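Morning run. Coffee first, then this:
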Amino acid sequence: MKAGALPVVVLAVIGVVAAVALPFVYVTPNRLLSGQPHSAHVAALAITWVVVAALGASGRRGSRVAAAVLAWLLIAGLPVLASMDARSLLLAAPPSARVPLGAGFWLMWLSASLLLLDRLREVRTSGRIAAWLSLLAAVVTMRLGGTFDTLALVREFH
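And here it is:
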């Protein structure tokens, strides 16, 4: 394993632990009470992080690019997964119910963000700007499309 691969592997291990051991979202009866943890995508997320670790450990240029792409997809995709979970969990819940994000979500999102920062270190400035602007555009598009409307953060904002 090359020296530059160590941050990728460490962040991927943190991602696996977050996916397996921590709740992804909670369902609360209202905004004041604590709720029940839910983690519906444990296997898929853990496998994704294991693939990231394997790509990071290989150290080849194509693997570094693939790890950056997976990190980008995790940053954009984790909120979408949380929103999908929230939609399904709120179907049978009272109108006052909320679905806040859990520690597993936040730790994986932070790990993916740090991983993308690490992988973009080796990219020219124009590539870095393009990666972050495309991520911003994706998140803004999803927000304007109502993707995140079922999450507690957005419901409380409204």
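Residues 3-157 form one domain. Good start to the day.
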